[in-house]
Amino acid sequence: MALYHNILVVIDPEQDDQPALRRAVYLNQRLGGKITCFLPIYDFSYEMTTLLSPDERITMRKGVVSQRTEWIREQARAYLAAGVQINIKVVWHNRPFEAVIQEVLNNHHDLVIKMAHQHDRLQAVVFTPTDWHLLRKCPCPVWMVKDQPWPVEGKALVAVNLASEEPHHDPLNAKLVKETLALAERINHTEVHLVGAYPVTPINIAIELPDFDPSVYNDAIRGQHLLAMKALRQPFSIDASLTHVEKGLPEEVIPDLAEYLDAGVVVLGTIGRTGLSAAFLGNTAEQVIDRLRCDLLAIKPDGFVSPVTVDDDEHD
């Protein structure tokens, strides 16, 4: 399987340091392939001025695009000098996430890497509206890189859904594990852990049913989840010591375990749905993501179709 051979790096226009490009080069050196540095830019003032003719506005746009292209080339100078294959593409577009997704669709990128900001080391990663749009709508995996060094012997933590009766979850769980193992094997033999969360006993049931035994209920639920985790890990020969079935809400269990393990990245699935709900990740995934303090790799299920189309050329 050719894994992540055509990486799209979304450049941060606000700073000279580019952690996303660093991570992309790190992956490229181990996986091969090519990197495209991508920057959508837009300046409303150029569009509004009545002093310029349409031709003059186009010329100004081209000038800005050229300036930013050279600026990116300077950021990538050391990598280019070392022989890393990096393409640079700057486009004029007023909706960055649409520009990124259209680039993915047009040029068949298999991974998007973008930097996510933190206020300080003790706080969770802060996601922008563009980040959320990409996580919800980008058809290929999205890797959100925090602007902190990768931890020494950083682990990969795969968040799996062991409780759902919906048929799409089992193949998505398997896809998450398969892709993470393939990536980890190529990148320093990174240790891969799996985590699933199971719910605590609903208090209202314990109150309303006097004969209800919460400990029996908890044991039964935990047992179901342990069996599901065993069924998931065994085909991949993952040792039981690398799997974690924890009581609590996923949005608390997963970030807490990631911090305990000093994980470098959490891998989770973002469910693609049809119709109006296609824009949403699902509440659980969004709450988990909001609390993470490490990198995030979000992977869509097979068959996901982005709501963004490739035929919007008016901003190019």
TrEMBL record:
Entry's Gene Ontology cellular component terms: cytoplasm
Localization (cell): Cytoplasm
Keyword Cytoplasm in annotation: yes
Gene3D superfamilies on file: 3.40.50.12370
The keyword Cytoplasm appears for this protein: yes
Pfam families for this protein: Usp (PF00582)
Ranges where the UspA domain occurs: 4-146, 173-300
Keyword set, alphabetical order: Cytoplasm
Function, in words: Required for resistance to DNA-damaging agents.
Family membership: Belongs to the universal stress protein A family.
The protein's name in its UniProt record: Universal stress protein E
Source organism of the structure: Erwinia tasmaniensis (strain DSM 17950 / CFBP 7177 / CIP 109463 / NCPPB 4357 / Et1/99)
